[in-house]
Write a structure and sequence with these properties.
The protein is an alpha+beta fold. The protein has 7 helices and 10 strands.
Length: 249
Amino acid sequence: MAVNTDKNSYTVIFAAVMVVIVGSILAFMSSSLKDRITENERFEKQQNILYAMGVNDNVDEGSVNFVSTDKVEGEFKSYIKEQLVIEGDKITENDEAYLIDMKKQMALAAKGETAKLPLMIGEKDGKKYYIIPMYGKGLWDAIWGFIALDDKMIVQGVYFDHKGETPGLGANIKQRYFMDDFTGESILKGTEYAGIAVAKGNNDPLNNTKDDNEVDALAGATITGNGVAAMIKESLNLYKDYLQTVSAK
């Protein structure tokens, strides 16, 4: 008996069957690839943290090249000497602190609840780096990154990324020329935590002045730049008590 493919019921049944089949295939793929996805996410965080402290495979002034995935785990263990979780007045060591979701912890802090704040302490060429994860909001969606500080609260490097900023404009927060401007800037203004502004009216476009708490803004990306500045200030503010103990040594 021939099937009447013109009937509405056929269309509905066919669509339902295809949804089940495709859904089953996607669920199987997601399950089978879960370990690989988790591993890649771990490698990416390690690469970003190392990049912030100046450990990378950059070969020229414009490139942004991470330590390769086949080497990053070993390099991470070599350069990251300690990982801490700051939870109110309690500080504990945790070898997987870097995997803590900063978005969730900042949401808890915003509600007045105690957050678990990850902090990595790295060492390179005999110098200590305090690497802090950051999370914020750009023009269209989330922005995030890492900032590396020395014991004087001077920025030693940063890494920024985004979910959906405009290509050629806000998306340029992850370009080398923008990230490099932060190196050498202080997050302090005197003894106060001022963060670093991304200033449209900055009179130092070459960023030669390092004591003004400012870097030059990206053209056409004012809101994203403001988001970066707010992200830095709000994220670091959560670590202020700990950082004060570091800078006071």
